[in-house]
User: Fold this.
Amino acid sequence: MKKEGVTRESAKRQVGEGWHGLIDEFYNMFPDAYMTQVKEKFGGLRLYHSGGSDESTKKEIEIMERSEKMCELCGKPTETRDIRGWLWTLCDDHAKLQEDKK
Ligand SMILES: [Zn+2]
Assistant:
């Protein structure tokens, strides 16, 4: 039986909806990659996997860079910002909500 790693559905549960399209893009391009971990780190989307190729590694980095310019919650163009010592990639509206959270 093929090992599955992190499924697309559970990958999407790790991050906000704004990045779901990026997750789909990677999973569609590399259906055979064994996904070890999908998460947000330093305000960017990380798609850790094994059994990939130079191509999938390049795509992983490209998607990380693109996620750092897209609101994690709604996908609007923005940039990574520091909110009380944590890096978030959120648009102005969502950053404000995050700032207001206690
Ligand atoms: Zn937003």
Q: What stands out?
A: The chain has one domain: 8-100. Residues 8-100 form one domain.
